[in-house]
Amino acid sequence: MTPQPPTSSSSTSGMHELLEQLETLEKTANLRSSIDDVQNAIDLLTTARANLAAEPQSAPLTLAKLQDPLKRNLEQAQKDLKPIYSGLNKYGKALDKKFKDKPLPSASNDALSSHPQLINRAIAMHLLRGGEFAVASTFVQEASRNPPHPEPTPSTPNPALEDSWEKELAEDALNSEKLQEQFEEMYHILDELRKKKNLAPAIAWARQRSDVLEARGSNLEFELCRLQFACYYVGHRPPSDDVMEDSDANSDSTAPGPMEAWAYARREFTTFQRRYSREVRQLMGAMAYWSNITESPYSRYFYNDYAWEDVATSFTREFCSLLGLSADSPLYIAATAGAIALPHLLKLQSIMEKTRTEWTTQNELPVEIPLPPSYHFHSIFVCPVSKEQSTDKNPPVMMPCGHVIATESLQRLSKGGRFKCPYCPGESHPREAVKVFL
Amino acid sequence: MAELTTTKLNAESHLILDQPLLRMPYELSRRNQKTAQRYIENSTKDVLSNLTAAVKASTKSASPDATLASLDSIITKMQGLKRKMENLHEEEMRIHKSNRARLEHLQDLYEVQSLVDVKYDEWSRVRLSRLLVDYLLREGYSESAAHLAASQEIQDLVDVDAFVACHKIERSLREEKSTTLALNWCKENAKELKKHGNHLEFDLRLQQYIELVRQGHEKGIDGDIDMYGDGVDGISLGSSRAGGGEQKLMEARIHAKRYLSGSEDFKLLGRAAGLLAYKPWDQVEPYASLYSPTRWTSLATLFLKTHHTLYSLPPRPLLHIALSAGLSALKTPSCHSAYAASSGNLALSSTTSVCPICSTELNDLARNVPYALHTKSIVEADPVVLPNGRVYGKERLKGFNEGLGTEKGWVRDPVEGLGGERWRESLVRKVFIM
Question: Which Gene Ontology cellular-component terms appear in the entry (chain A) (predicted)?
Answer without folding.
Answer: cytoplasm; GID complex; nucleus
